[in-house]
Amino acid sequence: MTETTFNYLFDFPDNSKKRFLIKLDAETIKYVSSNNTPPDWALLGVARCTCCQLNLATHDYCPIAANIADLVYAFRGTASHKACQVSCISTARTCSKNTTVQEGLASIMGIIMATSGCPSMSILKPMACFHLPFATVEESMYRSVSAYLLRQYFSHQDGDNCDFFMHRIQEQYGEVQEVNEGLLKRINITSEMDADKNAIVTLNALAQILVMEVDEDLDSLKRLFS
Predict the structure, then answer these.
(1) Averaged in consecutive runs of 10 residues, what is the pLDDT profile of the chain (226 residues)?
(2) What is the number of structural domains in the chain?
(3) 20, 169, 196, 203: which one has the fewest Cβ atoms less than 10 Å from its Cβ?
(4) Nearest 5°: phi and psi at 29?
(5) Residue 77 belongs to what domain range?
(6) How far is the CA of 153 from the CAs of 12, 45, 110, 146, 156, in angstroms?
(7) Which residues touch 11 (CB under 8 Å, ≥6 apart)?
(8) DSSP assignment string, 123-189
């Protein structure tokens, strides 16, 4: 396989439809861009994230902003609470849910943001291959913590400094929150409604919840192993 694909379909009560095909390179797990010219609000120097590690001399655009630009444009006039049926079709399975535009967009943006090449979002990249559409808060927490600890296991095998006690996870997810806030500032420049904005707010809330749960020793997950 040269690509991993997620085909997202939005079906609305008025019989209108929107379709988005997400492609990830099978080797690099990197989002395969459509190569359209990004809008000005995607320029790296516009509303740049405080934690940005990219060099303005070598990167013209914020990679996440450039990759979500078509998505933002398609939904810039759509309310977050608008009802629809969202389906995610991948090689492994098809998932469908009667939900809101906001939840469907959050699911798509989660993949794109994790795989666009932003260093601060690299902690989320391994989960993109095992994407779970419409994940609950508890499912998201379980996947995030499991992926983080598995990363530490492989780091230990390679002789690197590992963090089995998750002392660094809060710092890394703090950067994830900073990226979400930076993207919100960018989208506010162009978007008329709130669907895309609230999708990022949803993702940011998940990052905040994870940080709080680590502070509380992951008590909400501990019961699963009692």
Answers:
(1) 87 95 92 88 93 94 95 89 96 94 94 95 91 93 94 94 91 94 89 82 91 89 89
(2) 1
(3) 20
(4) 55, 40
(5) 3-225
(6) 44, 37, 24, 11, 5
(7) 17, 84, 85, 86, 87
(8) GGHHHHTT--TT--HHHHHHHHHHHHHHHHHHHHHTT----TT-SSHHHHHHHHHHHHHHHHHHHHH
